Amino acid sequence: MTDIAYFAQSAVPLLFVVVPTIGAFVRTRHSSSRRAALETWQRWWAIGALGCSSLWMTLAFLGAPDVMSTAIGFTRTPFEFEIAFANLGLAVMGFRAASASARERITIGIGAGMFLWGAAVGHLYQWFANGDHAPGNTGGVVITDLLIPAVMIILADRAQRVSTSEPATPAFV
Fold this sequence. Notes:
Elements: H1 3-11, H2 15-27, H3 34-63, H4 65-72, H5 79-97, H6 102-130, H7 140-165
Helix pairs in contact: 2-3, 3-4, 3-5, 3-7, 5-6, 6-7
């Protein structure tokens, strides 16, 4: 595999954090309040980062298991079917978080973190213990596994703190 192909495959997961970040940034440039901006950021992150990335992984593991096996540096196993449905659960939680309260979003972020942080530890273990440098095991996937739940929890925590300190703004002014 060429360096460019390896980099491209390794970087694909980063699209699921870059696109929501850009979208939320553009959408909140002229936000009426910090509270409104945090709400927008949380929705972009819940749908784009957690929901869409997890749905993508579901479809990839169900639709192209041989490709995914190669990408992560393993032979095909029934475990991939299980990973597909674990990701479907994360996708449902991500889409649900779009209309959830800050407290629910914290819980969803923690739930996603239990799976994704565990996956990140597994990726790092395979990398260092077994030399698995496959593009689906190192690089972007490790970053997104760590970042998606952490940012979701941080945004929800900030929103919860702001909601108690900043009065709600009317919907129509």
